[in-house]
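WARN  no MSA supplied for this record, continuing single-sequence
INFO  ligand: adenosine monophosphate
INFO  echoing inputs
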Amino acid sequence: MAIKLFDSLQRELRTLTPAQPDGVYRFYNCGPTVYAPAHIGNFRTFVVNDVLRRLLELEFGPDKVKHVRNLTDVDDRTIGQTRKEGRPLGEITKKWTEIFHADCTALNCLPPHVEPTATGHIVEQVNMIEVLMQKGNAYRAPDGSVYFKVGSFEGYGGLSRIKERELKVTNTVADADHKDDVSDFALWKAYKPEEDGEVRWPGPAGAAAGRPGWHIECSAMSKKHLGDTIDLHTGGVDLLFPHHENEIAQSECCNGRLFAHHWYHSEHLLVNGTTMSKSKGNYYTLGDLVAKGYAPMSVRYALLSGHPRKQLNFLLDSLHAADKALATLRAFRASLVQRGQVSGAAKSATFDGVLAALREDLNTPAALGALFSIVNAYEQRPALAGDLTGFDQVMFALGFRLDRPAAAAVEVPAEVTALAEKRWAAKQAKDFAAADALRKDLTTAGWSMLDRKDGYSLEPVKK
Ligand code: AMP
Ligand code: ZN
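INFO  complex generated
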């Protein structure tokens, strides 16, 4: 059986097959920018990619998949954060990388085989930029920055089908003075002391000292760890343009070869109909939800409850439904064990329909539907010896861990919630004196309240 996945470049479902004779499937997933917490919207993308990774392992074998996911630890946003906090770049990115890793573990995402950092691959990026300059695809601007000449790559716009006219409007007009053409994008940014602080490296030959542009990071790290041509490149829809379009241009001009056989973009998680995003401040982190008493596994379940290529509106209620669903699966597995089923038995075909749904464009809601129709009607059919093995394989593919209760990791006592609600209402009514007094009551009760634009979260005060 084959895995079929929508290809954003060809605009059709295409079968995934390793292109190279060693049979290893080469998979690059754009990773997080580590300057702030990853929110559960970001984790929708990473959890969907984790299901894909698991499915690839089932299909080609665990040692026949090479999964690379980078850490963007230098770019405009990370540098902006060092300026804001007045702390070194490495300190900030280390902190958020550790929190990202802890969240990935709690959500049961398999670690990628390689997790390269942009700052660890400056030489590789500089080398690519030098090749692009030598080939005439890039030029040095008067300030010592280097830009990619979009007009030099005939295939530009193939992924996003962006028309030239739109391109000129969409691309940043910042640095327009330095560019030959407004649609050109930065490969290397010359050092600006007032913005970059301590962050700078020696530049490509003929260019100023500075730092890489964001897009070249992924081209260089993908080339280093997976080779010139990869099997699959993925990310959230917002990366399609300009990030992935620019990656294609850089990699194909530098290497003279096809960059990726397949492109996959998953859709966004929304809040009240708007994309969840750090800049809008309308987000939940995993920590926020755990502090409210939800289990990370329920968050994972909720993130997989919608089709990955459709937008999904996030509701706290979906976590209650997820809790219940996981409790049902846990009880079902226990009943299989009670009936004498053993995990080592040869797999039955009972749950194959669930995997078939995942193989068809990662249709997670159809897979969950198929799973529950089997579980709910299980008593009415003859049990087969390998049902536990089949069930466990499906749990592996979806990445559901059933060994921990779906109940709250941190229970918030009712009286604390009541105080928090009162304080929130006081704050909304701009009664700041009352809000401050209630915050003191919360602290005395051992809780701290973190305010956001659209709500709050509660965390036990660390002792
Ligand atoms: P960033 O840390 O901003 O570089 O984003 C990391 C990943 O999360 C990228 O693949 C983004 O496309 C993805 N992403 C950002 N916002 C959302 C969202 N609201 N829902 C799903 N994925 C998102
Ligand atoms: Zn990337």
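Residues 30, 218, 243 surround zinc ion (ligand 2) (CB under 6 Å).
INFO  checksum written, moving to next record
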